[in-house]
Design goal:
The chain is an alpha+beta fold and 327 residues long. It has twelve helices and twelve strands.
């Protein structure tokens, strides 16, 4: 499959070449492919196209047809129909970058947009669910005690009849706050952090945001790998958390910004690391500092762990912070 090569640049070129071959009426050669690639904004020559065609041939997605060039195989067509998995690698981080850009919360006034996770539950389960969300939101593992309740007549998010939505502040909001304060930020890992006696011990699992087609939080949730209620009740369990990297030179400024964010009830910081040092055993790049946070979706996961039927959507959308209510 295309996705076996992890270089995003190669991925995009392989995808576009496969599309060009599929759009052709018959076999097509490397020179014509190179011309079409340049028309689509890719800086690649005939030699480079041949290199990528060899990869596609090896994957069984294209085949040589005499001296005429390449044709797409049934496997190649299936790959396109399945949505080109390789092309979607990095999609999550692209979505995150867009939401970060649209985050506008002012940590001095509390005005502006924050990123939220959303969930849908039956109206009959609302009272029990909101009690759980409230308990988690007011614990040390929370990003913020603010939530937004979404009714059927909501204009921003469509709520099906008989359902009610709950939106919680997403930890990626912190990335937006840092970015809009002039601090370059790289949202790096989503993972599970082990908790022992109410204290974070180490990350037990990590997934790179730029190397997956599915949100890491969704993966851990779907596999039932969390134990949020156990952590809330006993101090021992596994919580969803994530890590972002910032430049070493930005550490002091970041600490100031994060303190101002905490004053408007947006926090959840687990640890701000030292230059190049791992954070709870998660590796950090040289010249960078790791900043780990609990995930804002933990309270919704706790509802799911209680047995309530809930549909959870991590890093869902943005909403005005002033439209949220403190539990």
């Amino acid at each position: 499959m295309i996705s076996s090569n992890n270089d995003p640049q190669v991925q995009r070129k392989l995808t576009e070449i496969l599309r060009i071959i599929n759009e052709s009426d018959g076999a097509i050669g490397a020179r014509i492919i190179a011309d079409k690639m340049r028309e689509r904004g890719y800086k690649i020559g005939e030699r480079g196209v041949r290199y990528h065609l060899r990869i596609l041939d090896e994957r069984g997605l294209t085949a040589r047809e005499g001296y005429s060039g390449r044709v797409i195989t049934k496997s190649g067509i299936r790959e396109l129909e399945d949505g080109l998995i390789g092309h979607r690698v990095g999609f999550i981080i692209t979505t995150i970058d867009e939401l970060i850009y649209n985050t506008s919360i002012d940590v001095n006034t509390g005005e502006g947009n924050v990123i939220v996770n959303t969930a849908l539950i039956d109206k009959d389960d609302f009272d029990e669910a909101i009690d759980i969300v409230s308990a988690l939101s007011n614990s040390p593992y929370s990003i913020s005690p603010y939530v937004r309740i979404l009714e059927e007549d909501n204009q921003d998010v469509k709520i099906p009849e008989g359902k009610v939505g709950i939106a919680t502040v997403c930890s990626i909001t912190i990335d937006g706050i840092l970015a809009h304060s002039g601090i370059p930020v790289n949202t790096k890992y989503g993972g599970l952090v082990q908790m022992h006696n109410d204290k974070p011990a180490a990350f037990s699992n990590l997934i790179l945001y730029n190397g997956t087609t599915i949100d890491p939080m969704k993966i851990f949730i779907n596999k039932g790998m969390t134990s949020v209620l156990d952590t809330l009740n006993t101090g021992n369990g596994e919580l969803l958390a994530n890590i972002r990297e910032i430049p070493v030179s930005a550490r002091e400024h970041a600490v100031e910004v994060l303190e101002r964010a905490r004053e408007i009830d947006i926090g959840g910081i687990i640890e701000i690391g030292e230059p190049g040092a791992s954070v709870l055993r998660a590796p950090i790049s040289a010249g960078k500092i790791g900043v780990s946070l609990y995930a804002g979706i933990n309270s919704l996961v706790a509802v799911q762990e209680s047995g309530i039927d809930i549909s959870i959507h991590p890093i869902s959308t943005i909403t005005r912070f002033k439209d949220m209510t403190r539990l």
